[in-house]
Amino acid sequence: MTSTIPAHQPGTNGKHARSTGGGRNGATGSASNGGAKRSARERLLEAASELFYAEGVQTVGIDRVIEHAGVAKASLYNTFGSKEELVRAYLEKRHAGTTARLNAAVERQHDPRARLLAVFAAQAEFFTQPDFRGCAFSAATAEAPPAGLIEQAADDYRHDIRGLFARLAAEAGAADPDSLARQLHMLYDGAGQSARMDRDPTIAVAARAAAQTLIDAAIDTV
User: Fold this and answer.
1) pLDDT digits over 173-214, tens only?
2) b/e for 63-95, b at 16 or more Cβ within 10 A?
3) In the predicted model, what is the mean pLDDT of residues 152-158?
4) Is the pLDDT of residue 12 over 70?
5) DSSP assignment, residue 36?
6) Beta-carbon neighbour count of residue 112 at 10 Å?
7) What is the DSSP letter of 59?
8) How far, in Å, CA of 80 to CA of 77, rounded?
9) Spatial CA neighbour of 105 closest among 92, 91, 124
10) Residue 98 CA, distance from chain mean position
């Protein structure tokens, strides 16, 4: 039995219809690479992803995104309608990219406990990336008004991460999968914050060891 985070489908709700399609990978790159062969939406989303993650969603203005993407200003508003919609699309792109990498790491393992720990192994790889700047969702929601599209995008992401932990915990035989999932999710969040604030990717080693202790305690007592 396998546990896979459900495929994230950006913009399936009617109120987000402007933002359907586009990139699904959380990685970012220069918006100028092959830009002539890509749609304005793809170029805008790539530019926004690069700039928003590196500098913050409030620091980066629409004009900078447009300049970086090399498109007309009307293209942004015709495609996304507002900056908030663009930020939401950027977060959905990271959501899809991150969960795809976590799923891939999990599916490479067969032992139920190893599958839980694989989430932390994948997270450790994020920490070593040269452009790692912490959790995009935490940073974006800290700057956003409550109950908006940005907060909803973050909630959707966190729901999927918690759900993955809960399903893997149940497969591993934890007596209380939801409780173990909550503990592991807190550890996952804390490791990301520590890696960013302390500029120390080796925190992943401590996070994995702590996860191993929690998993063993939750399963060995069944």
Assistant:
1) 999 999 999 999 999 999 999 999 999 999 999 999 999 999
2) eebbebbebeeebbbebbeebbbbbbbbbbbbb
3) 98
4) no
5) G
6) 18
7) T
8) 5
9) 124
10) 5
Q: Retrieve residue 118's tokens.
A: 């694989």
Whole-number pLDDT of residue 73:
92
Beta-carbon contacts of 27 under 8 Å, excluding residues fewer than 6 positions away, are 97
What mean pLDDT value characterizes the chain?
Answer: 87
- Tell me which long-range contacts 187-191 makes (C-beta under 8 A, separation of at least 24): 187/120, 187/211, 187/214, 188/119, 188/120, 188/123, 188/161, 189/135, 189/138, 191/120, 191/123, 191/127
Rounded CA separation 83/62 (Å): 7
Q: What distances in angstroms separate CA 135 from CA 13, 97, 118, 127, 132, one per listed residue?
A: 25, 13, 19, 10, 9
As a whole number of angstroms, the distance between CA 181 and CA 158 comes to: 12
Angle formed by the axes of helices 112-127 and 83-107, to 10°? 130
pLDDT in tens, 84-113: 999 999 999 999 999 999 999 999 999 999
For the beta carbon of residue 99, count every other beta carbon within 10 angstroms: 22
Which regions of the chain does DSSP assign to beta strands (E)? none
pTM for this prediction: 0.82
pLDDT at position 143 over 90? no
Distance between CA atoms of residues 144 and 135, nearest Å: 15
What pLDDT is stored for residue 22 in this prediction? 34
Q: For residue 5, what pLDDT is reported? A: 56
